Amino acid sequence: MRTLAFIALLLLGLNPVAAQTIKGTVSDDQGSPLPGTNIVIIGTSVGSASLPDGTFEFDTTITGIVVLKVSAIGFYSTQQSVRLVEGETLLLSLILKEQVLESDEVVVTASRREQPALSVPVSVSVLSAEDLGRRNVIVLDDALRTVSGVQVLGNQINIRGSSGFAYNTGSRVLLMLDGMPLLTPESDGVPLEALPATEIERIEVLKGPGSALYGGGALGGVSNVISRELPDTPVTTVSSFAGSWEPVRHEVWRSGWTHGDEYRPFWGVSMSHARRSSPRFGWWANASFRRDSGYRQLSGRDVFHAFSKLSWQPKPAYKLETLLGIMIREKNSFIFWASANDVLSPGRITLGPAPLDDSDPNGASDNFVKQLSFLPVFTHFVGTKWFYEIKGRVFGLFVQPISNISGKPKSLSEGTLGFRYGAEGLLNWIPRSSTRMVFGASRDANTTRSSFFVTTDGDELGGQPEVAVFTHLEEELSENLQVVAGLRFDHYRIDQSNAESRLSPKLSLAYTWMPRQVLRLAWGHGFRVPSFAERFTDNRDFLPIIRNLELKPERSQSIEVGIRGSTSLRSSLVQGTFSWDASAFWNTYDGFIEPRLVVSEQAFQFVNLPSARIVGTEFQLEWKNASEQTALSVGYTFLGSREDQTEEELPFRSRHQVVTSLDSHVWGPFSAGLDYRFASRPGRVETDFARFVPDAELMVDTKVLDMRTSFTRGPFVVNVIVNNALEYHFVERPALLGAPRRYTLKLTYQH
What we know:
Layout: H1 2-14, E1 20-28, E2 38-41, E3 47-49, E4 55-60, E5 64-71, E6 78-84, E7 89-96, E8 106-107, E9 115-116, E10 123-128, H2 129-134, H3 141-144, E11 150-153, E12 156-159, E13 173-177, E14 180-181, E15 200-207, H4 211-214, E16 221-227, E17 235-245, H5 251-254, E18 264-278, E19 281-292, E20 301-315, E21 318-334, E22 337-339, E23 342-346, E24 364-381, E25 386-401, E26 416-432, E27 435-450, E28 461-463, E29 466-476, E30 481-495, E31 498-514, E32 517-528, H6 532-536, E33 554-570, E34 575-598, E35 603-624, E36 630-643, E37 656-667, E38 670-679, E39 702-713, E40 716-723, E41 731-733, E42 736-737, E43 742-750
Parallel strand pairs: 1-7, 13-16
Antiparallel strand pairs: 1-4, 2-3, 2-5, 5-6, 8-9, 10-15, 11-12, 13-14, 15-16, 17-18, 17-43, 18-19, 19-20, 20-21, 21-24, 22-23, 24-25, 25-26, 26-27, 27-28, 27-29, 29-30, 30-31, 31-32, 32-33, 33-34, 34-35, 35-36, 36-37, 37-38, 38-39, 39-40, 40-43, 41-42
C-alpha cells in the first residue's frame, strides 16, 4: 500500500497540474493604490485581496474566459472578463471609481446596467429592502405611495400624472421583475399582488418615458422590482403579522353594512430559505399566505404566493437564472360605493340593464384568480469586451368569477384567460472603458380570451404580437460629460387587419459641473398601443363600457432638465449628508387615450384625444446624520395638465403632491419612523361617472400619516405599524373610500 502511494505521489510530481497566475494593481481614478480590495473569480472562492501598495497575486487551475469581481468599501464594484491561458501569467491594472454619494446606491433601470445613482441622466427613485421591511409592505402599491411623483389610484400606478383614473383597463407604467416586463394580458395592468414583497432587494422607479429601452408599456415610466441576491451562507426567514382595520369614524357610513361597527382582522405568514448548495449553484424559495377580511363589504381576500429563484453557473463564463412564481387569490373587488352615506356597501348601476346575476351588486365582483410567472435568463461572457443575454418570459392569467349562488368558481369561459410570452436577446459590447453599447431584439405576444371582449370578427379570442429591435449607447465624452442615446423600432399587430409601427428615440446628457453635483438633460419619444380592455370591452355587468375598434396608439414627447447632488456638513450645528434632486419636465401627447361618456349609448368609451400636455416640477431632499442613525426625506411635485382641444385640465390629476419620511434609531434596539403623504384634490373631477354612481364626483385632499416602531434583539425583529394614524377619511379615486386606520404587529425571525 505504501508503495502504491509513493508511486502516485511520484506521478503527480512528474505531471503537475498547470497553474495560471493573476497579478496586478488596483488604484482609484486618481492613481492612488487601493489596499484591501477584493478580487474574486465569480462562481468560485478563488481570489485575493490587495496589499497596502495596491498589488495582488493569486493562482488558479481554471482556464478559458472568467469574470473577475473587484470591490472595495467606498468604491463602486466592477466586473471584468479575462482569458486565462494554461501556464501563463495575466497582468492587470484595475481602476475603481469612488462612490460620489456617501452610499452604495446603484440603479440598473435607466440603462439596463448597474451604475451609480448620481450619474443617471434621468429621474430615478429607489426603495430598498429595509424600506419595505420596516413599513411591512404586503402589496407593492403601499410602497410606491411613498415615492415622490407617484400616486396609486386603486390598482393603477400614476407617475407624474401620466394616468388618471381609467377603471383599471390600461396602464402607462411598465412593471418589471429583474428587468423583464410583467403586464396582465387583458388590460396591460400592473400585477402588484403577484410579487412577494419579502424577496425584494429594491424597487427602482424610472420617471418619464422609457419606450426607447422597454417598448410601449413604458410610456409613463417604469417600476422595476429587483429580486434579492443569493447569500454566501444559508439564510432562513420566518415572518408573521396580524392586525385589524378600525371602523370608520362616522356612524352613518357604518349603518348600511352589518359588520360596519366591527374591527376587521387580517393576518399573514411567510417562510423563505436561501442558500448556495455549491459555488456554482444556489437558490431561494418563498411561500406566503395572507387573509384579509377588508374594511368594506365584499372586499376580503385570501392570497397564496410561492416564488423561487434558481442560479446555476456551470462555468465562470456561463450563468443561468430562473424565476418561477404562482399566485392564487380569491378576492372580492369593491368597485364603487352605494352612496356618500353608505360608503362601505357596493352600489348598483341605476341606468341600463340589470346585471346577469341580479343578486350581485354592480359595485363588487368576486373572482378566483391564478397568475403564473416564468422568467429564465441565460448570460454568456464571450470575451473581455463582449457578453450576451437571452431572456424569456411567460405570464399567465386565469380569472374565474365566483357564483353568488353556489359560492364556487364559474367556468373560465365566463371569465378571462390570457398569456403574455416572449423572448429577448441582448448583446453588450464594451470596446473601451468609456464606451458601452447594447444591441437587442425581442418577440412578444399577447393572447387573451374574455367574456367581456368582443373583437372585430365577434370572436372572444384575440392576440397582439410585437417585434422590436433596439440599440443603446453610453459614451463618456470627457471626465465630466456623459451622453446616452437610444433608438427602438416596434411593430405591433393590433388585429388581423391593423398593424402599427413606431420609432422611439432618446438622448440624455449628464454633466458633472461641480464635485458631487450633476446636471442632466433628457429627451425622448414614447408610445403605447391600446390594451385589449380599452379596445374590445363591451359589457354592462359592472360599468357600462362599449368597445372602440377605431382606437389608435398614443404617442408622446418628453423633455426633462434636472440637477442631482450631495454634500457633507461637519459644522458644530449640523452634521451629516444632504442629497437633493430637482427637475422640471414637459410632456406632450398625440392621440392621448382617455375614457369619455357616449351620451347616446349611456356608456363610457375609450377615445383618442387629439393632443394633451403634462408639465411640472419635482423637488426631493434627503438628510442623514453623520452616524446615519437618523434620515429625513421630503419630496414635492407640482403638476399642470391640459387637454388642448378643450383647454381643460386632464381629469383625476392632483396638482400638488408631498411625501415625507423620517426614520431614527431612537435607543439601543429601538427605532421609529413615520411617513406622511399629501395629494391635493384633482383640479378636474369627471362628473359623468356620477350619472351612474351617486356622489361619484365627491373627492377631497389626501392626507395620510403612517407611524411605525421596531425592536431588534438577536435574530428577532418586532414591528408595530399604525397606518392612517390620524384617521383621516379620503377618496383617492371616484366612489371608493380610502383605507381607514389600521394596526399591524409583525414578528420576523432570521437565521
